[in-house]
Amino acid sequence: MSNILICDDEKEIVDAIEIYLIQEGFQVFKAYHGQEALDQLKKQDIHLLIMDIMMPGLDGIRTAMKIRESSSIPIIFLSAKSQDADKILGLNIGADDYITKPFNPLELVARVKSHLRRYTKLGNIAAENQAIYRAGGLVINDDTKEVTVEGEAIKLTPIEYNILCFLVKNQGKVFSIEQIYEKIWEEEAIGADNTVAVHIRHIREKIEINPKNPKYLKVVWGIGYKIEKQ
């Protein structure tokens, strides 16, 4: 059973989400501001966080930044702001998903399950027959979920890892934004451009010596992205 933390200063929203998640068999923990969410994360084994952005005191953005200093658990932002700039900001600081209020609770539950599937896969470590994928100095161990570049360990979020691993496994092939989104998010790519582009930029910043002149993760203008075959 997965543990979900809901953080929103509107108690009615927290209670409503809790009902749907409990019906799906999840254990739910609740917080009503950022600091309370951080305290819960220290005390409980949380597998996914659903968090509002606009909260008094420590808001969702600053809370997520603190969480990302030490944890890669999936974070789904809830926000009344629907502008692309707000979504990009949320993704930039490490969120895995962004849902605009008002939202369909069933869609939220579906996204929770999808992110948990990916996060759980990252924790399934096999001791035998390790799957090693290489692209020059970029090495991925898909059993231990470890990524190194020129021998240096790289820390990725679950979404970043899945995108990079997918491209490395298919190095030399070009994939469109829509193809990447549908493969990683397992849903139809509607308005996925910004979401994928933000994660690609984060990956580049972590694996490239010079992200503006990438060695590994390259754009094919007008088509998509690929890992250069080394």
Describe this protein's structure.
- A five-stranded parallel sheet has the order 2-1-3-4-5, sandwiched between helices.
- It folds into two domains: 3-123, Response regulator (Rossmann fold, 3-Layer(aba) Sandwich); 132-227, Arc Repressor Mutant, subunit A (Orthogonal Bundle).
- Helix 7 crosses helix 8.
- It is an alpha/beta fold and 230 residues long.
- The protein starts with a strand and ends with a strand.
- The chain has helices spanning 11-23, 34-43, 60-67, 84-92, 105-123, 158-169, 177-185, 193-207; strands spanning 3-7, 27-31, 48-52, 75-79, 97-100, 132-135, 138-141, 146-149, 152-154, 217-220, 224-227.
Q: What share of the residues does DSSP label as strand, in percent?
A: 15-25%
Order of helices and strands: EHEHEHEHEHEEEEHHHEE
**Average pLDDT over all residues:** 87
Number of domains: 2
User: What is the architecture of the largest domain at the second tier of CATH?
Assistant: 3-Layer(aba) Sandwich
Q: How would a crystallographer describe the biggest sheet? A: 5 strands, parallel
| CATH topology type of the largest domain | Rossmann fold
Number of strands: 11
CATH H-level homologous superfamily name of the largest domain: Response regulator
Quick synopsis:
By secondary structure, the chain is an alpha/beta fold. It is built from 8 helices and 11 strands. Mean pLDDT is 87; it is low at 124-129.
